[in-house]
Amino acid sequence: QKEVEQNSGPLSVPEGAIASLNCTYSDRGSQSFFWYRQYSGKSPELIMFIYSNGDKEDGRFTAQLNKASQYVSLLIRDSQPSDSATYLCAVNIVGRGSTLGRLYFGRGTQLTVWP
Amino acid sequence: DTGVSQDPRHKITKRGQNVTFRCDPISEHNRLYWYRQTLGQGPEFLTYFQNEAQLEKSRLLSDRFSAERPKGSFSTLEIQRTEQGDSAMYLCASSRVVWPNEQFFGPGTRLTVL
Hints:
The complex is a heterodimer. By secondary structure, chain A is mostly beta strands. Chain A contains no helices and eleven strands. In chain A, strands 2, 4, 5, 9, 10 and 11 form a six-stranded mixed sheet that branches. A five-stranded antiparallel sheet of chain A has the order 1-3-8-7-6, with no helix packed on it. The radius of gyration of chain A is 14 Å and the shape is globular. In chain A, 37% of the residues are buried. Chain B is mainly beta. Chain B is 0% helix and 49% strand. Chain B has no helices and eleven strands. In chain B, the strands form two sheets. In chain B, strands 2, 4, 5, 6, 9, 10 and 11 form a seven-stranded mixed sheet that branches. In chain B, strands 1-3-8-7 form a four-stranded antiparallel sheet, with no helix packed on it. In chain B, a hairpin with an 8-residue loop joins strand 9 and strand 10 (104-105). Chain B is globular, with a radius of gyration of 13 Å. The model of chain B has no long low-confidence stretch (mean pLDDT 94). Classes of the chains: A mainly beta, B mainly beta. Chain A binds chain B through residues 4, 8, 31-32, 34, 36, 42-46, 49, 51, 88, 90, 92, 98-108, and chain B through 31, 33, 35, 40-45, 48, 50, 55-56, 58, 89, 91, 99-108.
């Protein structure tokens, strides 16, 4: 079982809609959770992180964490065509001999926002 | 504010050749990470440094791969005797030591092994 699972999509939403991206993780030692955006042919760009249960908002983005369900999501409000990209979920996991430095990534969800 | 830089951006080599990549982190960041990404997959961890110390290395990393960060600033990743399966995007990231140590990525080096 992979540490981080994401639906690869593609997810397609109209401009102005809310896009919902989901991620599940398997290790309860997971400490902090990151969302990255990656445009085709480019490197990942950090959007935001979350480590406490509940919601965290940053502009049009809201990250949600539910540790009991081992679930983290990213909501994008008022989606724009420029939001079309692959969204990567990543986690830090304590234990396993890890020094809590490395990130474990999902394979990403491809989002398309059509005008 | 200068971000993470990587050089070269693209490298084409023949199977069996050695290649070396360089990464310069954000100046105040003590940690430097190397990841590899293939098409349709998320980045896969290779190794990371805190200052000049290599703190963790993936068990998946072949002995043909070696990384250094001799002065705690820039880092190099060398691949010896390249194979076609090494073709990928090699990503470098850096972070502060302070939790949650958000990692910021460079533009990557795309390696093609013919």
